[in-house]
Amino acid sequence: MENKTLLHFFKACAAGCLLLGACGLSVSCNSDDIEEGAMYTFTGETVASFCAKDPQLTRFYELMDRCGETSLLEVYGHFTCFAPTNEAIETYLAEKGLDGDSLTIEQMQKVVYNCVIRNASKEILVDEFEEGTLAEPTLSDRYLLISFGKEDNQRRIYVNGDATIVRGDNEVHNGVVHVVDRVIEPSEETLLGTMQAHGGFDIWAEAYEASGWADEMEDQYDEDYVNSFNTDRYQVIGLTLAVPENLKLGYTIFCEPDELLEENGITDLASMENYARTYYGSEDLGDYKSKNNPLNRFIAYHLLDRQMATNSFLYTGECTNPDYVDERTEYYETMYAYRLLKIKAGNRLNTRNSNLASVRVVETESNVEAVNGYIHTLNGMLVYDEEVMRNDVLHERIRFDVMACMPQLTNNNLRWRCYSSTRPEGTNGWTLTPEYCGEYFTYNTAGVCVLQADDAWADYQGDELVMQESYDFTLRMIPLPPGDYEMRIGYNSGGTRGMGQLYVDGQIAGTPVDLRINGDDPRVGWVRDSETTDDGVENDKMMRNRGYMKAPESIWYWHGGWDNVPMRDVSFALRYIVGQYHFEDYAPHFFRARSVDFKGRGFQLDYIEFIPTDMIRDEGRD
């Protein structure tokens, strides 16, 4: 597995180290807390020359030079380098039983690549660190985990748990060097191996292995993926779009520790199966690998097919109205077929609307890193209780960004990372091959897919999908509990948009929608709330009668003459009511849009929302 991983990041570097972006990191570490000797000194050096001249970093420079990477770290760019001291490298070699003089090029490159992040537009300074993973992967395509602590009454910053930053923010011409006291060494263990070695998860590890899920979650890359565009820069309709070269896989596991399981009468596989029967039925008892078995379902509901540290569960950018920060919510499909997990601000899982009860992620005992995912510790039992989930937790308006539907975008650092300042230099956005997301998103070869983002746009979570030319695309939406719902799509109208025919689960949904029509067009009837005598109440009703709604108040718009206003006050940000639907079973649901515009104008899709029909009358503006 290690050689396979190296092959992938060698390939990535040879292709020019496709750059993904960091954005909107909150300030979680105050530089005033760092020892004076650990603060930066600006020099006229590059990353490479700084390491060559610093007496503490000569061994790291030697490795860099011997494996041929000095030229990379001398070029113009925005590098963030966590350079290990000479003593750190000596310790690393001793622990590995290696001789520094006989290291292979591959071994030296591994040390260097694990230490270096290359960004499209900026280096990452100490004041931008927050608890959790950094937004950018290293050159070895791994994410570094930041945590904070105190020693000798001094604030400490740790990288991957055991490397301490001893001198941060040494700014150079092409980036910044943070000096660390240990070699950065991401885990090479599987999720199962990590769980077994960690301690405190023995019961969970046994069940995870017995269920067969551990075997299904070992791969780091989809080796069958082929970039059918045969380029990492796709030129189309006057745009230069970046193309992912690899299809990375990743996972997240939420675990109850042994102590909590034992408090609930779970001490072995048999007792876990018996506990799970209360929520998941009694099919295929004893056959733990059966997807119908209650123990299997119990485990599956704790698993996500996307790799996320605790700071990656929720959107943290500028497009959330400050009044609604504590209401941020994401819905993730678990590996228990078509069942959702709700995560709310504060890393609360399945918060009940009736009494605000929830299971919480224990931050200080989470972000346990494996080679392709993270393990997080829970403070309560996580189950899919049918009655509670359908009639309380998920009986609400469910709004999801279109990019939340595709786990491939999270695992390959595209969700929340398509900004103009962070995508690869010289590109206008990202695109995906038609097969990249499998069943989650497909489109015809006559269409063009464009992924872009900007905090200054009137978009939910900043990003958007735009389909161009003669598009015909299908999106597998997040699954919903059975029930009766009204469905809407959120989008921005404009002259570059066109007309599209909509379908839901293969059935045509009304007449084609014209995305060119602005809100203040009589066919929509949008009027600013402040220009009405009843704060827009009657206008909302009139717009609904025409099949439209204003955008949500909880989304913020920062651009131009609309600075610092809720998106509800933006006339071109609209919701279109697709229709009302009855869903009988837990099953996948598909949204399709097909161009009926002969001029090749586009279809912009920002977000989708479903609301139980019995809640429409009392729905708020959020």
CATH level-1 class of the largest domain? Mainly Beta
Q: CA-to-CA gap between the ends?
A: 47 Å
Mean of pLDDT: 91
Q: Oligomeric state of the chains?
A: single chain
Which CATH architecture of the largest domain would you pick? Sandwich
Summarize the biggest pleated sheet: 7 strands, mixed
In helices, the fraction of residues equals 10-25%
Counting DSSP H or I runs of 4 or more residues, the number of helices is 14
* Major β-sheet strand ordering: 2-1-7-6-5-4-3
Outline: globular
Pick out the low-confidence regions: 1-34
Question: How many distinct domains?
Answer: 3
- The CATH superfamily label of the largest domain reads Galactose-binding domain-like
Helix vs. strand class? alpha+beta
What percent strand?
Answer: 25-35%
* Gyration radius, in Å: 25 Å
Could you tell me the CATH topology label of the largest domain.
Answer: Jelly Rolls
Number of strands: 34
Describe the structure.
The structure is a single chain. With 622 residues, the protein is an alpha+beta fold. Helix 10 packs across helix 11 (294-300). The longest helix has 13 residues, at 2-14. 46% of the residues are buried.
